[in-house]
């Protein structure tokens, strides 16, 4: 079985959640002097979360809250002063400190400078999880605990810049909150490298740990789970196969692309071919990478592809009996989809027919469907 790979000539725009506004300067995270000085700088921006969810901006525009150390509404200075001595120590664990802190990057502008070379406003995300035994307690958090918080609906309505910053912060904080014990020996782990890695806390050299004692990768890294998502089209793009999931049966009738988690030792192309066959019965081995999208629910990377199928009555035959994940899958006329997209006004879903919708613009599925439509229109124009 061969799988052709090519990069689509029509590129999708910047994905929602995928706009990078910061320079991550990842090589500076293990430089304690950089971390300390950036945490203490007046221009540094902190994105506050409480129990894993961001606080909303207090301004008129929908967005996430950004606080400086000496913010008028709430000063983080006393909290950061107490967290600074804990950096790279076991006491930085959220169970002891009451806060997870992670460095996001430098934003252009701002007067912070490190080694006269790296300038900008440092950005950190901080997630407060206070308890009666933590260093930072509820009483230290003033108005933060009562402030309105983001939810999935509000995040999807934010600008892409704000949603992408949220996504970046949330993925690190979600990982820091969930992964507290070493997978090698079960000891507690604690954050290092400005909250971007977790170190095994096993100090007993006689107790082997295959994480701590490894030559490389001897820390735990943040997790990203790749998901392939693929629009299936006939080779001339005149038809597109979209499917309705059983899991979303109570929602509006939504037809979308095929998606599934990648598995170990699987290429993106083979994962697409497998998911397509398992879910729809369609045999598709011509997979084209179109674009990717970080998706912070919880820590996914959507790998968006288009799969081209020969409409020969065999390869394109739909059979839902293998995986039985889908309620329905159908070949639709791409021309009909083009007309629905022409009328689309940016809402959460695209109205296709009276009783059928497609995903709206924030979803990569929408971009993939649009990609097929653009290819179809170009093929018509070249006739
Ligand atoms: Zn360990």
Automatic annotation (TrEMBL):
Belongs to the Nudix hydrolase family. NudC subfamily. It is an enzyme of class 3 (hydrolase). Keywords: Hydrolase, Magnesium, Metal-binding, NAD. Coiled coil: none annotated. It catalyses: a 5'-end NAD(+)-phospho-ribonucleoside in mRNA + H2O = a 5'-end phospho-adenosine-phospho-ribonucleoside in mRNA + beta-nicotinamide D-ribonucleotide + 2 H(+). Residues 222-354 form the Nudix hydrolase domain. It comes from Torulaspora delbrueckii (Yeast). InterPro entries: NAD-cap_RNA_hydrolase_NudC, NudC-like_C, NUDIX_hydrolase-like_dom_sf, NUDIX_hydrolase_CS, NUDIX_hydrolase_dom. One of its GO terms (molecular function) is metal ion binding. The keyword Metal-binding applies. One of its GO terms (biological process) is NAD-cap decapping. The gene is TDEL0E05240. GO terms for cellular component: cytosol; peroxisome. Its EC number is 3.6.1.22. This is NAD(+) diphosphatase.
């Amino acid at each position: 079985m061969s799988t052709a790979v090519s990069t689509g000539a029509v590129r999708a725009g910047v994905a929602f959640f995928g706009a990078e506004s910061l320079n991550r300067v990842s090589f500076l995270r293990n430089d304690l002097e950089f971390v300390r000085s950036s945490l203490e700088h007046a221009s540094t921006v902190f994105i506050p979360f409480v129990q894993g969810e961001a606080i909303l901006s207090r301004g008129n525009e929908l967005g996430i809250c950004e606080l400086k150390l000496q913010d008028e509404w709430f000063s983080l200075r006393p909290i950061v002063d107490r967290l600074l001595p804990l950096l790279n120590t076991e006491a930085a664990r959220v169970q002891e400190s009451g806060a997870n802190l992670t460095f996001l990057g430098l934003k252009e502008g701002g007067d912070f400078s490190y080694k006269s070379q790296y300038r900008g406003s440092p950005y950190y995300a901080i997630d407060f999880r206070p308890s009666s035994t933590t260093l930072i307690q509820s009483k230290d958090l003033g108005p933060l605990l009562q402030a309105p918080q983001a939810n999935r609906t509000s995040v999807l309505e934010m600008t892409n810049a704000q949603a992408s910053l949220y996504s970046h912060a949330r993925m690190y904080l979600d990982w820091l909150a969930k992964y507290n014990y070493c997978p090698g020996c079960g000891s507690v782990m604690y954050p290092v490298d400005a909250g971007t890695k977790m170190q095994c806390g096993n100090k007993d050299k006689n107790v082997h740990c295959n994480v701590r004692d490894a030559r490389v990768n001897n820390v735990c890294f943040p997790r990203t789970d790749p998901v392939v998502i693929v629009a299936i089209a006939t080779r001339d793009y005149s038809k597109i196969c979209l499917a309705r999931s059983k899991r979303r049966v109570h929602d509006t009738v939504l037809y979308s692309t095929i998606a599934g988690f990648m598995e170990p030792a699987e290429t993106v192309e083979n994962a697409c071919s497998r998911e397509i066959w398992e879910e729809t019965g369609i045999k598709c081995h011509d997979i084209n990478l179109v674009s990717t999208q970080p998706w912070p629910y919880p820590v996914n990377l959507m790998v968006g592809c288009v799969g081209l199928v020969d409409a020969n009555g065999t390869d394109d035959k739909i059979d839902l009996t293998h995986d039985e994940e889908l309620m329905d899958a159908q070949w639709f006329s791409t021309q009909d989809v083009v007309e629905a997209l022409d009328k689309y006004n940016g809402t959460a879903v695209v109205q296709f027919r009276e009783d059928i919708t497609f995903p709206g613009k924030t979803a990569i599925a929408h971009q993939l469907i649009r990609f097929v439509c653009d290819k179809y229109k170009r093929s018509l124009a070249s006739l």
